[in-house]
Design brief:
This protein is an all-alpha fold. It has 23 helices and two strands. A hairpin with a 2-residue loop joins strand 1 and strand 2. Helix 5 packs antiparallel against helix 17, helix 15 crosses helix 16 and helix 17 packs across helix 20. The longest helix is centred in the middle third of the chain and has 35 residues. The radius of gyration is 22 Å and the shape is globular.
Length: about 525
Amino acid sequence: MRQRKISLFSGVMLALSSLIGSGWLFGSGAAARVAGPAAVISWIIGAIIMIMIAFNYVELGTMFPESGGMSRFAQYSHGPLLGFIAAWANWVSLVTLLPIEAVACVQYMSSWPWAWANWTRKFMADGTITTEGLLVVFAIMIVFTLINFWSVKLLTHFTSLISVFKILIPSLTILMLIIAGFHGSNFGHNSATFMPYGTRGIFEAVAVSGIILSYDAFQTVINMGGEMVNPQKNIFRGVWISLSITAVIYILLQVAFIGAVTPSDLARVGWHGINFASPFADLAILLGLHWLSLLLYVDAFVSPFGTGVTFVATSSRTLAAMTRNGNLPAWLGRMNRRYMIPRLAMLADLFLAMVLVFFFRDWSKLATVVSISTFVAYATGPVTAVALRKLRPHFTRPFNSRHLAWVAPVSFVMTGLVIYWAMWPTTVEVIGIVLLGLPIYFYYDLRYNHVPLRRQLKGALWLLVYLVFISVVSYLGSTGFGGRDILRYPFDFIVIIGASLIFYWWAVRSRVDGPDLEAAEKVNAKVKRTYEDK
C-alpha cells in the first residue's frame, strides 16, 4: 500500500495545484476595481483569515487523518445534524469549483487573440458561456474526472508536474511586469489615493473578488490526510507551506498589477473603470511583452485545469466521507478495490457539476456564492476543535497549541464577517444552499438512523440561528455591503463581532457527548499508536 501514499512534496504540490487556479488570473484585476491600490491589504487580510481558520483544522486533521475528514469533524463534537450541514456546505462549494475552473479555461480560450483561434470566440457571449462553450466545459470536466479515475499515483504525478508550471508563470509575470513598466505613483501619495474607496472597499474585495476562493484550497491537504505518508506531521507541514507560498505569490501579483496599469488610463477611468478581459495578458500586450502574453494565455488554461483536476479528488473524498455519516446512500462512498478511490462519488460530482454550470454560466457569480458557502462550513471548525478538547482531553493531538484558546473565537468571528462582506442578497443564497440539503438529511435520518431530534437540535441550532442572524444584519447593514443602511458602517461590524462571540460561546456549550465520539476514538487510536511508535 506504500506506493499509493502521498508524500509531503506531492501533498504540497497537490495543494498548490488547487490554490493557484483561476483566482490568480481574475483576482488581482477584480480586487483593484473594488479597492484600488489598497487591494494589496485585501490579499493580506484574506491570507490571515485563511491561516487562522487553517490553524483549527490542522489540529483536527492530525487528530483524525482520514480521507474527506472535513466532512466528519463537526459530527464528532456536535452530532449528525451539524455534521451534515457543515459537510453539505463544504461539499457543494467543492463540487462547484469544478465548473468554475472549467468555465475559466473556456473564458480565456474565447479571448485568444490569434486569427486561427477565431472559432473559440463563439464560446462566450455577453460574459456568459454559450451552448458551444458549454459543451467544451463539459468535455474539460470529464477530463478532470478521468485523470483521477485510475489512481492516486497518476493524480500526484500530474499535479506535481503542473504545479511547477503554475508557480513559475505567476513568478515570471511578477518579475517582468515590475521590470517592464512599474509606476509607483499608481499606489497614491496619501491614504485617500491609496484607499480611494475607503476601508470598506478593502473588506468588500476580500469576499467578492475571488480572494477567499483563491486561498480556500488549503483543505486539500486535510481531506487527503488519510492517504498521506506520516500524516501526523505532514498535514501540518503541507498546509503551512502551501498557504505561505500562495500568499506571497498572490500579494506580489497584486502589487505588479497595480504598478503596471498605465497612469493615463487610470486618470481617465479610475480604478473602477480598469476592466481587462484577460488582466495580466492584456497588460503584457500593452507593455510589448507578447511572448509573456502567449505564456499567460497558455497558463490561463493550465492553472484552472490543474485546480479542477485536484478538486475532483477532494470533492469525491468529501462526498464519500459524508456517506459514512449515514445521511447519503452508502454506494456513493464505495471505494474501487484496485485503486482505493471513490469512483462512484466522482461520477456523482461530475453529474452535479454539469447541472450547476448549465444553470449558472458566469464565473464571478459562481465564485462569490461558493466561497461564502465554504465559510458556513468553516464556522464549525473553531467550535469543533475547542469542544473536542473539553469532551476528550485525552485524545492524541500531534498538533496541540495553547494559542487555540484565542485563535478559535477570533477565527469564528472572521467567518461571520466574511459571510457579511459577500453582501446582500448573497447571504440569503448561502442560507438556501444549506437548507437545500436538509430534506435529504431528514429523509435518511427518519428512515435509517432515528437519532432523537432534541439531541440533533442541541448540537446544530446555534448555526441555523447564526445564519439567520447574519442574513438579517446583511439586510439591515450598510449600503456598501448591499444593505438598507439601517446599521451603518462600521457599526455593522461591531454588531457582528459582538454577536459572533456570543454565538461562539453558545456553540461550544452545545457540544454533544454521543455515539459519534466512539467512531472518533477509533480513528484517533490509530494516531496514538503511530505517534507512540515514532
